[in-house]
């Protein structure tokens, strides 16, 4: 049996949970080290992050110590992490000195994250990125390392239908958007609400409420957060789920998301998806027969009118997108893909490497 120490954030429905479950279902023994035990809210609101910075050195040391303890106890074939947050060079060098493969999955479109450093990324043997536009950059930055492309996915245990089939009377909202606030997303949603003032419109996500205050979006707020089954249930409450991403940030240059976890989670939960148009989503789904796409506020609004008037057509597209997505786009499938790309069958077992 192959073994792995997996360090990351393990909350219900997240990438780390999905991949760790996927590796286990592929027959691996996975020892998890949960970042959230050491950082109260590493990706959360600014006040908590400010507090965390005051104790971040201690938190980082404790987290890295826990990783090394897990490595010592399990002697894994692979150390795996998502983003590699707060992993210091000393810790990675120590793991490598024991003959253990270092593997990272980087599922974000930029590198301006607390605890993420390009210098530490250079220490990994294999770096998987979910962003096709990062491949050339990473291969230049990591000339001695392998860089491979693997898409996001969905968690089969979480992102799945809860009621089947859905009836029109089961929906609470005409339009649903779930995702953390960004100025780019806000501009899209504000424009949509102004075009669709009479529709039942729900928005869920961190930091939306404060930015929506005093605007036409204020009454659209449903909840500040939805994780795990609650997230899947909320998606199921919307006749149409919108997939639009965060836009560019100062550290990303020309980079911005083409697809995200939402691209896979919405169809996996048997929900209808209108997705921002690009070549990558068209490679994954067939617009007009499985999902549909939009490029402007006017087109998005027109698509909403079109599909709300055609519930039977929506139902057909939902079924086709579900069959396309499940199980091919699951984190189980992504874990299998990574195992194949790692060529793990050719890597000697830990006990053999230590002889």
- Spatial shape: globular
* Quaternary class: single chain
The average pLDDT is 90
Strand order of the largest sheet: 2-1-3-4-5-6
Structural class of the secondary structure composition?
alpha/beta
Summarize the main sheet.
6 strands, parallel
Q: Give the H and E element order.
A: EHEHEHEHEHEEHEHEHEHEHEHHHH
N→C terminal distance: 18 Å
Total number of β-strand segments?
A: 12
Supply Rg: 21 Å
Low-confidence stretches: 42-48, 345-355
Number of helices: 14
Describe the structure.
With 355 residues, this protein is α/β, with parallel strands linked by helices. It is built from 14 helices and 12 strands. The protein has helices at residues 15-25, 46-74, 89-97, 118-121, 135-141, 183-195, 208-212, 228-236, 261-268, 279-284, 297-308, 311-325, 331-342, 350-353; strands spanning 3-8, 29-34, 78-82, 101-106, 126-129, 146-149, 173-178, 201-204, 221-223, 238-243, 273-276, 292-294. The strands form 2 sheets. The protein has a 6-stranded parallel beta sheet, sandwiched between helices. Strands 9-8-7-10-11-12 form a 6-stranded parallel beta sheet, with helices on both faces. The protein is globular and about 60 Å long. The chain starts with a strand and ends with a helix. The model is unreliable at 42-48 and 345-355 (pLDDT under 50).
């Amino acid at each position: 049996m192959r073994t792995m120490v997996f360090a990351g954030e393990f909350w219900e429905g997240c990438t780390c949970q999905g991949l760790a479950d996927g590796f286990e279902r592929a027959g691996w023994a996975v020892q998890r080290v949960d970042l959230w035990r050491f950082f109260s809210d590493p990706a959360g609101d600014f006040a908590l992050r400010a507090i965390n910075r005051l104790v971040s050195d201690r938190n980082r040391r404790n987290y890295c110590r826990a990783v090394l303890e897990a490595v010592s106890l399990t002697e894994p074939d692979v150390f795996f992490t998502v983003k590699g947050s707060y992993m210091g060079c000393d810790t990675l060098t120590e793991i490598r000195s024991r003959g253990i493969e270092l593997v990272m999955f980087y599922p974000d479109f930029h590198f301006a994250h607390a605890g993420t450093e390009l210098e530490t990324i250079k220490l990994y043997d294999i770096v998987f990125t979910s962003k096709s536009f990062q491949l050339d950059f990473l291969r230049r930055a990591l000339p001695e390392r392998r860089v491979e492309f693997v898409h996001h996915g969905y968690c089969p245990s979480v992102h799945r239908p809860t009621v089947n089939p859905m009836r029109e009377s089961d929906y609470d909202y005409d339009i649903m958007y779930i995702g953390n606030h960004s100025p780019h997303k806000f501009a899209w949603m504000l424009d949509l609400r102004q075009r669709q003032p009479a529709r039942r419109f729900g928005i869920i996500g961190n930091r939306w409420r404060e930015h929506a205050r005093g605007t036409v979006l204020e009454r659209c707020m449903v909840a500040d957060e939805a994780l795990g089954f609650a997230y899947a249930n909320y998606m199921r409450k919307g006749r149409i789920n919108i997939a639009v991403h965060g836009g560019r940030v100062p550290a990303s240059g020309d980079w911005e998301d083409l697809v995200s976890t939402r691209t896979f989670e919405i169809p996996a939960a048997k929900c209808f998806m209108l997705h921002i148009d690009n070549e990558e989503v068209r490679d994954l789904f067939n617009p007009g027969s499985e999902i549909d796409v939009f490029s402007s506020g006017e087109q998005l609004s027109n698509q909403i009118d079109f599909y709300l008037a055609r519930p039977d057509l929506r139902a057909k597209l939902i079924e086709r997108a579900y069959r396309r997505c499940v199980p091919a786009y699951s984190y189980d499938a992504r874990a299998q893909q990574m195992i194949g790309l790692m060529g793990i069958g050719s890597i000697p077992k830990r006990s053999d490497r230590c002889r």
